[in-house]
Amino acid sequence: MTKIGVVVGSLRKESYARKWSVALAELFPADVEVEFLEIGNLPLYNEEYDENSPSEYTEFRNAVSAQDAIIFATPEYNRSTSGVLKNAIDVASRPWGQSVWAGKPALILGHSISNISGANAVQSLRPTLAFLDMPVLAQPEVYLANSQNYFDEDGKLNNEETRGFLQTVADAFIAHIEKTLNN
Ligand SMILES: Cc1cc2nc3c(=O)[nH]c(=O)nc-3n(C[C@H](O)[C@H](O)[C@H](O)COP(=O)(O)O)c2cc1C
C-alpha cells in the first residue's frame, strides 16, 4: 500500500485546486491510499512554538510523516503560491532538523482561473521543496488553466481529454515514487 497525502492550498469549499486533486486521486491504482491533509486549522507559524507546539502542528506533522509521498495542489495567488500552503509547509519543516517532508517524493499541481494556469505558483514552490529535500516529479508539469471550465455542477471533471492528461500524471507520479523510494 502506497500512501499519498494531498495538501490543498486553498481553504475555499468550492476550491478548484481541491476539485483537481479529487479528480487526480481517482486515477491512482487500487493499492494507493490517498489522504487529504487539512491545513485550515493550523495557526500561523511562529518560531516560538518550536518549544511547545500547538496540538494542530503536532497532528499535521504526524499526518505528513505517515505518508510515502505528497501532492501539493496550489492555486496561484499574486503570481506565487498561497499563504496557507506556505504556512503548512513551514509548520511541518520545523523544529530545525525535524522536518517531516525530507525524502518524500512530491508532485506540484498548479491551477488558476486564467490562462496563466498556476505556472508562477508552481515555480515559486520549486526552490522551497528542493531545500526541503523533496524530489519533485519533473515531467509532466501540471499547469491547469481556466479551471472554472472543467467541472460540472457536482464538481466532477467534465473533460475526457484532460482526464487522460491527469492519468498520465498519476502514472508518472507512481513511477517517480517507486523509483525514489526504492533507491
Ligand atoms: C489573493 C488572490 C490572488 C490571485 N492571483 C492570481 C494570479 O496571480 N494569477 C491567476 O491566474 N489567478 C489569480 N487569482 C485567481 C485564482 O486563480 C482563483 O481565485 C482560483 O479559483 C483560486 O483557487 P481555488 O479555486 O483553488 O480557491 C487570485 C485570487 C486571489 C484570491
TrEMBL record:
Pfam families on file: FMN_red
Domain NADPH-dependent FMN reductase-like span(s) in chain numbering: 2-147
Database matches in SUPFAM superfamilies: Flavoproteins
GO molecular function term, any single one: FMN binding
InterPro entries tied to this protein: Flavoprotein-like_sf, FMN_Rdtase-like_dom, NAD(P)H-dep_reductase
Record-level GO cellular component terms: cytosol
PANTHER family listed in its UniProt record: CHROMATE REDUCTASE, NAD(P)H-DEPENDENT FMN REDUCTASE LOT6
Protein name: NAD(P)H-dependent oxidoreductase
